[in-house]
Structure formats: structure tokens, C-alpha cells
Amino acid sequence: MYLTQSLHRDMQTRPDDIATITGDRRRTVRELHDRVSRLAGALQNLGISKDDRVAYLGRNSDYFHEFYLGTFWADAVVNPVNTRWSAKEIAYSLDDSSTRVIMADETIRPHLDEIRALYPHVQTLIWTGSGPAPAGAILYEDVLDGATPVADARRGGESLAGLFYTGGTTGFPKGVMLSHANLFVGALGSCIGRFVTPGAIFLHAAPMFHLADFGAWAITTLTGGVHVSAPSFEPEQVFEAIRRHSVTHTLLVPAMLQMLVDSPLRPHADVRSLRQISYGGSTITQAVLERAQDAWPHVAFVQAYGQTELSPVTALLGPQDHVAPAPKARLRSAGVAAPHSEIRIVDPATGATLPANEVGEIVSRGGHVMLGYWNKPEETAKAIRHGWLHSGDLGYLDEDGYLFVVDRLKDMVISGGENVFSAEVENALARHQAVAACAVIGLRDDKWGERVHAVVVLKAGETVTESELRDHARQFVAGYKVPRSMEFVDALPLTSTGKVQKNILRERYQ
């Protein structure tokens, strides 16, 4: 199993078909094959050899596609860098991975001097941006023009494919080591589960450095699809790309999905070509999902649950579970174990398997479980025990094997001795018509140990009082779960993948 395999097959079966689209630029499979083999040759000329790391720091584009395939082709390891990190976090990931060659565009420019000061060991900066290259950088197209194509190393199997650094919301990020086999198994199983279906014209609207989008990238690549890139997530760009390129599939995190549904452009947007929206990366409220289904009744919805350490999917809620006659309550679930995955619910303290409908830690096993954390054997041993990846998420399985995720272990609120799952309270608050987004955290309280605190963003032009929201929440959750304190804000702090940074909220309100 090697991730460049599909490019060889496509050269035999569809060399003149379109492979990638970025703006007005279209490249065929034949052009892609030539550019990838030249990039691999260029990387080797720059001193990249077996197992070396190559980083990419930039916006979504066809260059990202070439970076992945070209690095694998050169027998090296990819290190896609989060563009929203601080210079210190970026430098840390480069230093931790001993990365010497970086491909980058304009997104690195504001941080470049500081990165170079913090990590002076970058040997080569390859510039993929459209603006003037920084001092010392070499232009990407010049690199390709001066390179000779090389044979594919056909790096695969258990060899390391990439270091995918986790979000860095608590301390510095960890490098998740994923093999070609990990990513291949995850892609094939997710394809069977309809995360992305074969022959897709797939829009990369979510960040391509994130493993959720990489999972969709791998399926689209393996099944002969077309990659369309939106440089960044803007509703206008997304709607225009769908119309212009007849996009059939895309992946969105819940925050993105909500932005599209709420956009004033939505009623007039031409999305007739769109067949499926896959969503995941963070918890979605049932209210947002139902509004999206109402907005686009012709579109199938698929939810994926997992994490970077699971390549990245371990459970899927398929299209058939989003519509009648499936029970409506099933929309609150994360689906069933994906075809390549096994899931259990265990007692966090003892590791014993828990019965149906009892909340515990979600653990997974299969060929998609990471090799481990880069240079962190102790943390690897904590996360992987007897072959099972311990997710840090709390949830339960119902009698039919559907997984319900209720909270992160670290986000559960214990108030007056009772466990309060923040996602449950957030879902109740989000059902109010005035609420655009919300987050629930636990704050220290002299009487209750912790109190339930809600941070709420209202829709434009809407008003609601704390008392009204509490009364609304009591319709759906027990009294001890209703927020005892509340704050209205203009926006929630989000990671680049749309997850609420609750650690920041806890620090702010504590």
C-alpha cells in the first residue's frame, strides 16, 4: 500500500483527464505525473533522502496536492503545518521534526523572520506564493523547471508517511506518526462507508493541512476524483467554486456548515451539482444540521467521527441515517464503527468494557491506529494500550451499536457531584432561535465545586435574556445542567478546524 499508487494507475487509464483545479488553473493527470516526478527529483537534489521531513505552510491549492505526492515519491515524509499557529508553534514543529526544507506561500511572510530566529536550521524555502519571494527563497516553478524526473520510490506499507501535528490548544502540539498503511486503510474503509464516494469532484474548503481534509484527499485521489481548491474558507468563494466547477462533494466542519447556512448568499447560490456534504472535526448541534438539511434537501449528509491519531475516521453516520425512516434521535449520534474500525466503551479508571448506554471513554482498534507520537514514547504508551487507542472522549454505544459522543474527558463538568456533559447543554441552548453558537465550560464554585457556565453568540439582530435561555434549556436538560452563569460575546475562539478553544474560555472566565 503506497499513496502514489493511484497516480500510476491514472496514467494508464485517464492521462488526459483533469486532476486538479485551482482558480483558472487546471492540470491533467499527465501534467500532474510529470510535475510530481520533477518535484521529487528537485527535493533529492536539495539533499532530501529517505525518511527526511518536508514541510508545507500555505493555503489550499494544487501545490498542496503536488507536495503530498512529490514528497512520498522522493521517499520522504510530509509535515503539513497549521497556518494559524503562532511563530513559536510553527518553529517548534519544525525543530521537533528536524525539518530542513519548507514549501510556503504568503501565509508564512508575517512570521518568517521570527521563525528563522527561533529555528535557524531551515536549509531551503521553496516559494509557492504569487507575490515576490522572501530573501533567500527559491521559486517553486524554477525548482521544477530545473529538475529531472525521477522514479517513484514507492514508499509504502508501515513506513512513515507523515507527521501530523495536533492542534496545540493545550501546550505545544504533538507529532502524530501515520504510516502509508494507516492512511490507506483509513481511506478505503471510509470510502466503503461513503465518507467520499468514487469519482467525486471534491472541493477542499477545509484546511488541507488538517487530517480531516487529508482523509478526503486520499479517498478522492485513490478513486480517480478531481481536486478543486478554495484558498481559504469564505462562503462566497465556496458557493462560487461549487457553481463554477460543478462540485459534487465537500467536507466542512460544523462552524463552516453553519456559516454557509447563515450566509445571505445561500438562498441565491447555485449548488445544484452538489451531491454530498461530509462533516466532522467537532461536535455539531442538531439544530444546525437540521437547518442545513432544510436548506439543501437534495444533498446527502455524512458525519465522520475520529481524530488525527485514527487516520482520521473511526465511526460514520451515513446518508441513510440522516433521513426517515431512521429515528430522528440518531442525528445526535456519530454513527457506527467504520468498516476498518472496532469501537468499545471502557471505564476510564479500570479499562473494563461497559454495557450499552453507559458512558465511558471511547477506544478504537484497527489498522488505522497511529504508529505513535514522534519522540514521545511515554505519551504513546498512555494513548495506545493493548492495541486500543484511548480517545479522551466520553460516549456510549446504544443497543444497535450507534456511538453517541457526549464530551471530552477534560471538558466534563462535575457540579454538586453530578456529571454534566457540555455537549448536551450546548445542544439544548443551540435550539433557541436567537443562538448562533455557544460553548459550555466548568468554572470553580465554592458551593458546587464547579458551576456550569455558558458562553453564547447571538444571531445578528436577535436578543434574548439569560433568564429566557435558562428557561429554554430546562425543556431539554435536567435542572442541575442548566447554566448557572452566562456571558454573551461576539465570537468564540476557534481553532483552524472550527473547534472551540475551551482552554482559552476557561482561562478568560476563571
From TrEMBL:
SUPFAM superfamilies: Acetyl-CoA synthetase-like. PROSITE patterns: AMP_BINDING. The keyword Ligase applies. Keywords: Ligase. One of its GO terms (molecular function) is ligase activity. Residues 424-499 form the AMP-binding enzyme C-terminal domain. This is Fatty-acid--CoA ligase.
